[in-house]
Design a protein that fits this description.
The protein is mostly helical and about 130 residues long. It has seven helices and no strands. The chain is globular, with a radius of gyration of 14 Å. The mean pLDDT is about 90.
């Protein structure tokens, strides 16, 4: 276990959540979703760093990250479903052809819900660090 890496990833996760909040306050719904994905990705990498000797992989696939470090088996059905919902908010949000589709699926209410669920999942993972 590398405590420095756990701290590093946890701090980045917190920063990304704060960024999601800033994007929420300015109505940038696409980037709320993107930053919530980043928050979860980094807290999963913090958990990875606690459980594994090798560095966290360069991957944005939340499902694979969770499964490969043992976190996937601990997720509830609701958490698994949420992680699945978050997957398209990373890669697709980066490409112009998908931005409109993803952006149209995100409203103020949907982003408020994403932020709440992101914070809950992040806090839950933190209890295991």
């Amino acid at each position: 276990m590398d405590l420095d890496k756990v701290k590093y990833w946890t701090e980045l996760s917190d920063y990304d959540f704060d960024t999601a909040d800033a994007m929420f306050r300015t109505g940038r719904w696409l980037y709320v979703g993107y930053m919530c994905h980043q928050c979860i990705e980094k807290i999963f990498k913090a958990y990875w760093s606690k459980k594994k000797v090798e560095p966290a992989p360069y991957s944005h696939n939340l499902i694979n990250l969770a499964q490969s470090c043992g976190l996937g088996q601990l997720l509830s059905e609701e958490q698994r479903a949420f992680v699945g919902e978050m997957m398209p908010l990373n890669i697709e949000a980066r490409y112009p052809s998908y931005k409109q589709i993803i952006g149209d699926s995100l409203s103020e209410d949907r982003c408020k819900e994403l932020m709440q669920k992101t914070k809950e999942l992040q806090q839950w993972v933190k209890t295991m660090l």
